[in-house]
Each structure stands twice: as structure tokens, then as C-alpha cells.
Specification:
Distance between the termini: 31 Å
Structural class: mainly alpha
Shape: globular
Order of helices and strands: HHHHHHHHHHHHHHHHHHHH
Largest sheet: none
Number of helices: 20
Number of strands: 0
Radius of gyration: 22 Å
Strand content: under 5%
């Protein structure tokens, strides 16, 4: 391992740079939701192209996390981070020449390539730079606070930019931020790599890429159809099972595997992975569904919607920073499990509304879900605690993969529950029955989504249909809230049982 010890001031300055670059990546995952309408109006993408514009970033990111972490261990984590910044900035700059949906898809793909180089290396470098376990726990708390905040403020930043500029600004904002990050990292951070990592397993890298992309695409496709009766998704799931099964076997038999699965022998690390997945599952589903409610039912503008989503970001930041101190005073296992329960209560709170949902209840729900994301700080500490320094890249890739899978599962599972409840509730209304009799095609569109129903209602002057669609969507939020609460309760119990009694954040036990 090549590493030069750093002063305390330099360590914390480096943390600020690593966290800021993570913030840009997390924002990029949600800012597109605000930019998409303007982009679609100008470029006229087909429905399939629009799905790819949204999905290709996370598909490429999820597929490349493990391979790029392996390359970084051998080539140098700092070099990989700087290359990731460069690719991310250049891809964002290319939007100036984007005159077609295909070009935007290519740009989003390149952003995924750069993002996969950045995300795990921010974690692995924190693991290397912060040697003291107590100091590292606080550093990871800051990192987690930024992770929780980034996704929530993405819509707000997007709304502000789109008020003043075109949809291109959602991409171009990355360029100066990546330039500053590149200079700062070049000056502040030492190089770090594993000297005896061996040759890169190219076959394993390719197969892991295929397996992860197939898995994430299958889950997304099931979620988009809100049904398990999707042959192409089952085919992709079969490919994922074969590829990932072969990859796991290869990692278990090789002396120097691309991904050291022996890390999962640490129960604390395994619990951290499950907790991180659960926290992101709750956040991603809540942001997706409540952002729609705020704009389409509550009538908020994009900027207003972003502001009204801030309770989640604020509480995520505060609880992530407080989590290490709470863990010292009580126990990491109890704090972690409690945070997940609080997130579940926040989701279930949505079911407490009547037929009309009010913003104060939504704000309370968001705040509780934000409190729950404080679990990310403890989860990160457990994951890094369970990995030696030369496996920091592996640990970072595992944690980031759990985030990606958690986000996809949240949208797929809870989004599907919401879609099924919405359709069932809308079909039971008199306005929908009347529309189905007069215009079956419009009725078919109205039951696909709340946005489509509002478009149909506005174009046909059907105020009753709009009101019924809004009520159906509230019912869908309640159904998803109950399902989310149950899922988070199960995750909490599983995490509590996984973490050995007496585990602390400095690796000792009592």
C-alpha cells in the first residue's frame, strides 16, 4: 500500500472535497426528473428513448462499480478518481452539442462510466486517509449526510436552474464543480493502491458487468410494468442469475479475486450492507412518489416542490452527523435498527391521512424518513470496519452497489404497489367508467399514471376525473406507505439480529 500520512487539517479538507463530489453525483440521479419535461419538449424522444435517458445512468453505474474498484486498487485510487472527474465533466459538457435523444442517452451512459469511477473511490480513500477509527466514523457520518442530502436537493437545484436557463443547465452545472474537485484532489490527496493485488480478472469484470446490468434492468422492467408477467424481464433475470452465479464461484476459488466475498463473513459488514440498501429503498421511493403528489396534486412548481422536499434532506444531514455520538452513548446496533424503524414509521404515517392528504403530514413523513437515513452513517462505519485497508476498494464497491440496488428496488417494489392501488382505485370511480365508455384509449392512458390522467382531464375538461385521479393517487401513497413500513420493520429486525451484541464503531466489543 502506497500511502503518506496527512495532517488533521488536510484530512478534513480532503473529506470535504470527496463529499462534495459525491453530492454532485447524488444530485445527478434526481435532477433529471425536473429537466426531463423541457428536454422531451425539445428533442421529442420516443417512450422507449425516454426510459433509456432515465435508466441508462444507473444501469452503467451499477455494472461498473465492481470492475472499476478492481482497476483502482491496482492502478491507483487517486488516478481513477481524477479520471472519473474528467469523464464526468466532459460528458456533461457534451450536452452543448446534444440535438437528439440518442445523443442524450450516450451522454448519460458516459456519466455512468465516470460516476462508477468516483463513487467507490470516495469511500475507499476515506478508509485509507482516516486511520483512527473514531475519526473515521465521523468522516463517514459526513459522507453519509451528503449522500442523504444530495438526492433530496437535486430537484430543488434543478428547479432553480430551469427557472433561469434551459434543460442543458442540469448537465452543465457539473462542469465547474468537477473542475474544482479535480484540482483539489490533485493537491490534497495521496495516491493509494494495493501493491500485491495481482492481475486484474478481465473475464470476471466482464461477467460481473453483464450480471449487474441484467439484474438492475430486470428489476426496473418489473417495476415499470407493475407486474411479474414480463417475459423479457424474466429472461434478463435468468441472465443475471447465471452471470452473477458464475462470478461468485470464480471469486470464491481464485486466490486474488476481483471482489473478496470473504468480507461478508463479517456480520457487521453484512448488516451495514442490508441497512444501506433499506435506507436508500425508503428514500428513493418516497422522493419519487411525493414529488409527483406535490406537483400534480398539491400544485407546487418545481422549485416549490424542491423546497417542500427539504425536510428529508435536513433531517438526513442532522441525524447522519449525530449518529456516531448516539452510537457511542447507546449502541451502534440499537441506533442502526432504531433509525430503520423511524424511516418505516415515516412511510407508514402516509396511511394515516384521510381521502385528502395535507402537506404537514407529508412534511412529517419526510422528516422521519430523513431521520431514518441516519442509518447510513452507522452502516458505512460497519462496512468499512469489516474491511481491511487493502480491501477498501472492494468495500466501497459493495456499499455503492447496495445503494444502487436499494434505489432500484424501492422504485420497483413500492412504485409497483402504488401503481396497482392507483389503477384499482381509479377504475372504481364513475368518472373513469364514463370515460371508458366514451373514449377507451384515453381511459387506458389515464390509468397508466397520475400525470397522464391529469393531461386527459385537462384536455377534455373533465374536472371530476382529475379529482378522482388525485384521490386514487393518495390511496396509492397510503398503500405504498404501509408496504414500505412493513419492509423497513423487517430490515430493522434483520439488521439487529445480524450485528453481534457489543459491537462498537472502533472495532472493539464489550
Amino acid at each position: 500500500m502506497i500511502y503518506t500520512p496527512m495532517s488533521k487539517r488536510r484530512r478534513w479538507a480532503a473529506l470535504m472535497v470527496l463529499s462534495a463530489s459525491l453530492l454532485v453525483l447524488m444530485m445527478d440521479m434526481t435532477i433529471l426528473n425536473i429537466a426531463l419535461p423541457g428536454m422531451a419538449a425539445e428533442l421529442r424522444p420516443t417512450a422507449t428513448q425516454q426510459l433509456w435517458i432515465v435508466d441508462v445512468y444507473s444501469l452503467v453505474l451499477a455494472g461498473l462499480l465492481v470492475p472499476w474498484a478492481g482497476v483502482a486498487d491496482r492502478w491507483g485510487r487517486k488516478k481513477m478518481l481524477l479520471l472519473g472527474y474528467t469523464i464526468f465533466a466532459l460528458a456533461s459538457l457534451m450536452v452543448l452539442w446534444a440535438d437528439s435523444a440518442a445523443m442524450v442517452i450516450a451522454i448519460r451512459m458516459l456519466l455512468g462510466v465516470g460516476g462508477a469511477m468516483i463513487m467507490p473511490n470516495t469511500l475507499s480513500l476515506i478508509r485509507v486517509v482516516f486511520v483512527d477509527t473514531r475519526e473515521r466514523a465521523m468522516a463517514l457520518a459526513v459522507w453519509s449526510a451528503v449522500a442523504g442530502m444530495g438526492g433530496a436537493i437535486g430537484p430543488l437545484i434543478g428547479g432553480v436552474l430551469l427557472e433561469a436557463f434551459s434543460w442543458h443547465a442540469a448537465f452543465l452545472v457539473n462542469v465547474p464543480l468537477m473542475a474544482v474537485a479535480s484540482v483539489s484532489v490533485a493537491l490534497l490527496l495521496p495516491e493509494s493502491k494495493v501493491n500485491d493485488a495481482g492481475k486484474l480478472d478481465y473475464a470476471g469484470a466482464v461477467v460481473s458487468l453483464i450480471g449487474m446490468v441484467a439484474l438492475v434492468w430486470a428489476i426496473k422492467t418489473f417495476g415499470e410494468h407493475a407486474s411479474l408477467l414480463v417475459p423479457q424481464a424474466w429472461a434478463a433475470l435468468a441472465v443475471a442469475a447465471v452471470a452473477l452465479g458464475w462470478f461468485v464461484r470464480r471469486c470464491l476459488v481464485r486466490e486474488q479475486p476481483l471482489l473478496d466475498l470473504g468480507l461478508f463473513r463479517s456480520r457487521a459488514l453484512s448488516a451495514g450492507v442490508v441497512a444501506a440498501l433499506g435506507s436508500v429503498l425508503a428514500m428513493s421511493a418516497s422522493l419519487l412518489l411525493l414529488a409527483q403528489w406535490l406537483q400534480l396534486v398539491d400544485g407546487a412548481t418545481p422549485i416549490e416542490a424542491g423546497l417542500k422536499l427539504l425536510p428529508l434532506a435536513v433531517m438526513a444531514t442532522l441525524t447522519s452527523l449525530a449518529a456516531p455520538r448516539l452510537a457511542e452513548r447507546f449502541s451502534p446496533r440499537g441506533v442502526l435498527a432504531s433509525a430503520l424503524v423511524i424511516a418505516g414509521v415515516g412511510m407508514a404515517l402516509l396511511a394515516c391521512s384521510g381521502a385528502v392528504l395535507s402537506y404537514p403530514l407529508v412534511a412529517a413523513s419526510l422528516a422521519l424518513i430523513g431521520c431514518g437515513s441516519g442509518a447510513l452513517a452507522i452502516a458505512s462505519a460497519f462496512i468499512m470496519l469489516g474491511s481491511p485497508e487493502d480491501k477498501a476498494g472492494n468495500a466501497g464497491a459493495i456499499e455503492e452497489s447496495s445503494y444502487e440496488i436499494g434505489a432500484v428496488l424501492g422504485v420497483a417494489i413500492l412504485g409497483s404497489v402504488a401503481a396497482l392501488v392507483y389503477r384499482g382505485s381509479l377504475r372504481d370511480t364513475e368518472s373513469f367508467a364514463a370515460l371508458q365508455s366514451s373514449d377507451p384509449q384515453a381511459a387506458e392512458a389515464a390509468q397508466e399514471s397520475l400525470g397522464a390522467a391529469m393531461d386527459v382531464a385537462n384536455s377534455a375538461g373533465l374536472s371530476t376525473l382529475a379529482a378522482d385521479a388525485a384521490s386514487a393517487f393518495v390511496a396509492s401513497l397510503q398503500g405504498a406507505g404501509i408496504a414500505g413500513g412493513v419492509v423497513m420493520a423487517l430490515v430493522s429486525v434483520g439488521v439487529f439480529l445480524l450485528v453481534p451484541r457489543g459491537t462498537t464503531l472502533d472495532g472493539s466489543s464489550h
